[in-house]
Write a structure and sequence with these properties.
Radius of gyration: 18 Å
Strand order of the largest sheet: 1-2-3-4-5-6-7-8
Number of helices: 11
CATH class: Alpha Beta
Oligomer: single chain
Shape: globular
CATH superfamily: Divalent-metal-dependent TIM barrel enzymes
Order of helices and strands: EHEHHEHEHHEHEHHEHEH
Strand content: 5-15%
Number of strands: 8
Distance between the termini: 14 Å
Number of domains: 1
């Protein structure tokens, strides 16, 4: 089991000193699919980083629409080909497909058509993912952030529809708890859970800082499903990795061991 933090590469020193295993970057600032190869400096950033960057989130920018009348699959294909190729170069093997702004269904737009557009987008990515040994994990987001794919159960509809080994599912404790999703949904999805995000339900702070969230039932379901991948803290209001990072890491490891 490896524990990491969702922070930029230039904070990796502090994260490493606090005992963490990796950092999870942002696609928009690290892999940068909107810029040409000659302007991309991702490999330089990787060399500077004190920790590996095995995962990256915020896959598609909000103005590059996946659903609705403005969706353009050709533009998305060009963008994703750059992102996936660069992810392989940096050994960023997991790309997190949250991207609420890009996939949010416009008001009045047919939801069945929007679902088909999302499925088509993921299917389009699949051969490129396989070629470069990169995986997309579909992230459920709570309804306050996005109006489609709001549960693990809903994310699994897309995973099963695409049915490709490089398309998996993510579970985020914050969104999972905000949506009051039953652990049974996570249990059923375990063969496809390929990445985990954690944060407290209370104001989305780092685990242990609010002292209000019990991760043990959540972790127990992961353990029973034999999960042994990455767990990333994705939270708000956290800047002092040097002093608070060890406390958060100890809390997570203790909760995992007790689950």
């Amino acid at each position: 089991m490896k524990f990491g933090f969702c922070v930029p590469y230039d904070k990796a020193d502090a994260v490493k000193n606090a005992g963490w295993d990796f950092v999870e970057e942002c696609v928009q600032t690290f892999l940068q699919g909107l810029i040409p190869d000659e302007q991309w400096r991702g490999m330089d950033k990787l060399q500077i980083s004190a920790l590996p960057i095995p995962a990256a989130n915020m896959l598609v920018p909000g103005d590059l629409k996946i659903t609705g009348p403005a969706a353009d699959l050709k533009k998305l294909e060009q963008y994703m080909s750059r992102v996936i190729e660069r992810a392989a170069k940096t050994e960023t093997r997991t790309l997190v497909f949250g991207s609420g702004g890009a996939r949010n269904v416009p008001d009045g737009f047919d939801r069945a058509k929007a679902k088909g557009q999302i499925t088509e987008f993921i299917r389009m990515c699949a051969p490129m993912l396989a070629q470069h040994n990169v995986t997309i994990v579909i992230e459920p987001l709570n309804k306050g952030e996005c109006n489609i794919i709001n549960s693990v159960a809903e994310a699994m509809e897309y995973v099963k529809a695409v049915n490709h080994p490089n398309v998996k599912c993510l579970v985020d404790s914050y969104h999972f708890w905000i949506e009051n999703e039953p652990l049974e949904n996570l249990k059923n999805a375990m063969p496809w859970i390929n990445h985990v995000h954690v944060a407290d339900k209370d104001e989305r702070v780092a685990p242990s800082l609010s002292e209000k969230s019990d991760y043990r039932p959540f972790f127990r379901t992961l353990k029973e499903g034999k999960y042994d991948g990455l767990i990333s803290v994705e939270c708000l209001k956290f800047t002092d990795h040097q002093s608070q990072g060890p406390r958060v890491l100890k809390f997570l490891k203790d909760q995992w061991n007790e689950s």
